Amino acid sequence: MTDPTATAHDPRDNHPTMAQLRAVAQPPEHIARYNAEHWAGALYMRHLSLPVTRALLPTGITPNGVTWLMIVAGVGGALALPLPGLVGPLLCVLGMQLQLLLDCSDGEVARWRQRFSPAGIYLDRVGHYATEAAIPAALGLRADGWTLTDPSRVGGWTVLGMLVAILVLLNKAFTDLVHVARAKTGRPPLEDVAATTRSRVSGLAAIRRAFGYLPVFRAFVAIEASLLALLAGIVDVAHGDLLGTRVLVAVMVPLAVITAGGHLLGVLTSSRLR
Description:
This is CDP-alcohol phosphatidyltransferase family protein. This protein has ten helices and no strands.
């Protein structure tokens, strides 16, 4: 039988049991949405975020306050990448893990306290946009050997990193602009299901399915990008130069073009704008 106390919910209660908090802050209908969860969230982060959320509640911090911490963790981790050796990549990985943890917790705090606002969604998007664009930009700086003590070392690799950052921002904008276009034409919000993203052009749909087995777009998601940066950093240290980081930046350029271009085509040929 279900414990009747598990779903009792007083938003003013800052000391819920774990069962009470889980029932309200991690409802199955939210977690199971098509685009709701990063694989790391489902695999382990949701298990870690609940005790963190429970510890945050008595502090009185607002959901938006947690989101600001998420932004600082993500952007700070990305900007650490140019630090020499493995220090920068390791700090980046830790920053992205902390960002994901706080990204889980801000929504959990909001659901427990029943405090939802457009500002919270806006800040959340700002955090992800800023972080995921900062990673390739910082990788470009690292590939040029840029340091705080030698800030003049900015060259072609930095330009390539910035190019990837711009493509990352465009790719993310292509998704949000769907919602803008629908809102401006009075259409209802899209359901968060796989069917809405399916291309109506059979060839493109087949290509999209093929990329499902080789999800190159994940190279530009914060968690995966930080792990790739760490792998590149390990190659740097083993090789005694910046070979790993430079190869990563060079590979990211065509992948970003393919990802952004494919996403734009996918939007235009799907039912999202109908």
